[in-house]
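Deliverable D2.4 — example input (structure tokens):
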């Protein structure tokens, strides 16, 4: 019922910034909690941030103060602004959706719809 398509990944130097986008198809017909996740090679997927339609957000401690999750409801687009990037931020970044109106922690097991991912590489 929902399709998510990420874009905006790339390669940057440590300390740089990137803005990821996630086009959300089907959002107009349902209410979702939206999340950003990341997965590095050989590691498990970890939560980054989550947001609900009224703008409430939650963040993983490792990114709070550096990353900002936001949404443009008119464009059905989710964003992740990433500042002060570190090499340990290198990963494939995924957006995800959970049906419902509640804000939940960005735990992968709580999200059932996933995008294809966009690669972020931060060099030192």
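Example output (designed residues):
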């Amino acid at each position: 019922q929902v399709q998510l398509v990420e874009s905006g990944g790339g390669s940057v130097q440590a300390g740089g910034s990137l803005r990821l986008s996630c086009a959300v198809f089907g959002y107009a017909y349902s209410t979702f909690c939206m999340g950003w996740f990341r997965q590095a090679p050989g590691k498990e997927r970890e939560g980054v941030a989550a947001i609900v339609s009224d703008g409430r957000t939650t963040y993983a401690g490792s990114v709070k103060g550096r990353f900002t999750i936001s949404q443009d409801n008119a464009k059905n687009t989710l964003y992740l602004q990433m500042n002060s990037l570190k090499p340990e931020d290198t990963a494939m970044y995924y957006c995800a959706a959970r049906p419902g109106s509640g804000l939940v922690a960005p735990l992968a097991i709580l999200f059932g719809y996933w995008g294809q991912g966009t690669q972020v590489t931060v060099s030192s």
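The CA atoms of residues 65 and 117 lie 23 Å apart.
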